[in-house]
Amino acid sequence: MYRRFTFFGGKGGTGKTTCASSYALNLARRGVRTLVVSTDPAHSLADAVGHPIGSEVVKLEPNLWGLEIDAALEARRYMESIQSQMLHIVSAAIVEEIKRQLKIAYLSPGAEEAAIFDRFVEIMEQAGDKYDVVVFDTAPTGHTLRLLTLPEVLEVWIEHLIKKRTKAMDLMRMAAKYEKDLQEKLKEDPIFDILSRRRDMFQRAKDLLTDHELSVFHFVLNPEKMPVLETERAIALLEEFDIKVGSVVVNRIIPAEAGEFLRRRRESQEGHLATIDEKFGKYGVVKLPMLESDIQGMDDLAKVSRDLEAIER
Ligand SMILES: Nc1ncnc2c1ncn2[C@@H]1O[C@H](COP(=O)(O)OP(=O)(O)OP(=O)(O)O)[C@@H](O)[C@H]1O
Ligand SMILES: [Mg+2]
Questions:
Q1: Distance 11 CA to ligand 2 centre (A)
Q2: Among the atoms of ligand 1, which is closest to the Cα of residue 18?
Q3: Where does the record place the ArsA/GET3 Anion-transporting ATPase-like domain (predicted)?
């Protein structure tokens, strides 16, 4: 049994893309139809697998497909779709104002995340027939945690908007009691529909992400001080949001045969490894050695994937 949605996350540069693509390759070579998706706006999936990947799914080898979500493109599509929905609804007088507001929203810090999120949910919902497993190569921790906890946070906010909208419409309907035409017009409320569609989408995303049989999140870290602290905090947050934490992958462990030059560094890693075993032992700690050179292309990834077989499925 494989969980349908497998996430790899962690601090910048720890080896998330390497682990995600190597894990995906291993599944594919066992006959599991696998899609590996990068949600990191700074993609490096194509480099890792040694094959160009873009905002449309490409086949990488039998049973393996890749996709890099293009944050800027999704943000633009997202804004355009909201704009076209809104422009149908609002009166001509405020069209320019709406356009202006949307432009500001497009440039705001959360816009790309919101747009990536929509695409991300779409991928999860449509994965069913085509793929057995979707492996997500995520952006460094902070960004990803915001992405995964977005439904929970936005649900509260959208619920509030829906309540306000309902109240406003009730008032308008009351005021229109004696005007037949207006009454007819107010029967439907497109804004309410848009809001409730989004609320339902967040709800569905939350259901998928918090289903422990369906989704699992693996952490990748290096045996150093800061990543241990960051991983500890991130695990606590995910668990608070009821997202299943799978394995903790410790990457770049200096092998014993590395020689005198790296001895001191190796000793310091040993201390951190002991802390990692103690703190994260219950999740299953999977260890990966530091290799002599970068891990690039399918052959390199296949070498790493044997070590990753210990990852909890
Ligand atoms: N165990 C290892 N031995 C040697 N090189 C490694 C190892 N793990 C990763 N690398 C190399 O280190 C670089 C960074 O790894 P990777 O891209 O997987 O990290 P990342 O966590 O995805 O980074 P980012 O946060 O930038 O997305 C890559 O060039 C990769 O080939
Ligand atoms: Mg990466």
A1: 9
A2: 18
A3: 4-308
Protein residues placing their CB within 5 Å of the ion ligand 2: 16-17, 44
Query: For 242, phi and psi rounded to 5 degrees?
Result: 65, 35
pLDDT digits (tens, 9 = 90+) for 102-150: 777 777 667 777 778 888 889 999 998 899 999 999 887 777 777 777 7
Does a structural domain hold residue 117? no
The alpha carbon of 30 and the centre of ligand 1 are apart by a number of angstroms equal to: 24
Residue owning tokens 């037949």: 180
List alpha helices for 131-249, DSSP H: 141-175, 180-186, 190-209, 225-240
Residue nearest to atom 9 of ligand 1 (CA): 15
Of the pLDDT bands very low, low, confident and very high (cuts 50, 70, 90), residue 62 is: very high
List phi, psi (to 5°) of 259.
100, 175
* Ligand 1 pocket, CB under 6 A: 12-18, 40, 44, 140, 251-252, 288, 290-291, 294-296
Structural domain that includes position 140? 5-70+127-161+210-308
What CATH number does residue 51 fall under? 3.40.50.300
Q: Separation of 48 CA from ligand 1 center, angstroms?
A: 8
203-240 residue pLDDT tens: 898 899 999 999 999 999 999 988 888 899 999 989 99
Q: Of all atoms in ligand 1, which is nearest to the CA of residue 19?
A: 18
182: its two tokens: 């207006």
Number of folded domains in the chain?
1
Backbone region of residue 146 per phi and psi (left: phi > 0; alpha: psi in -120 to 50; beta: other values): alpha
